[in-house]
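User: Teach me something about this protein's shape.
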Amino acid sequence: MNTANVTLELEDAALPGDLAMPDRPSGVVLFAHGSGSSRHSPRNRAVAAGLNRAGIGTLLIDLLTAREGEADEATRELRFDIGLLTRRLVGAVDWLAAAPATAGSPIGLFGASTGAAAALAAAAERRDRVAAVVSRGGRPDLAGAALERVHAPVLLIVGARDPDVLQLNDRATDRMRHATHRLEIVPGASHLFEEPGTLEQATDMAVRWFGHYLKHPVTA
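Assistant: First, the predicted structure itself:
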């Protein structure tokens, strides 16, 4: 496993990230963290570790700069700025496509909470580069009209004890007219998948989804 601390120099920000690439990766998954979180999210890191063990590379980044993160802690506004988060993710997708360590690798997106909306919107913007999307406890409804432009296969993972988010995810599937999609419900899991064994179930689902669709991309 090759690991590196990287800095993504985007048009409007320099974002720190943690890149992990197996020796022969079947692809690389870019993480979009949820509300008020960062690349240090223990849940996302647990999922990333599962992907790494399966031979899939990962890139965890902070979607907000340090100054923006401080402002968001006070206002809680930027975490819901899906347009901003999407632009940052699109920039990160383009970075992965150009970076020597990841160029040529199929790209997947993993989003949690509000990060899932940005992941879906970024997939719509980069149909030629994003091969698959997984959402855990996500808010796909916040992606708005972008849902109808997603072509990459989408897996929506929701906890059975998260009824409001489950309803939002179920409604969102009706708008994904061009994408292969599946809604998976994890028994006993609440929104944060804190219950024993539930995050492991979600990780296994993500590994299978990315393991298949990064190796067998769907042509739009």
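Now, about its shape. The two ends are 32 Å apart (CA to CA). The helical segments are 42-53, 66-75, 82-98, 114-125, 163-173, 198-213. If you'd like, I can walk through any region in more detail.
User: That's plenty for now, thanks!
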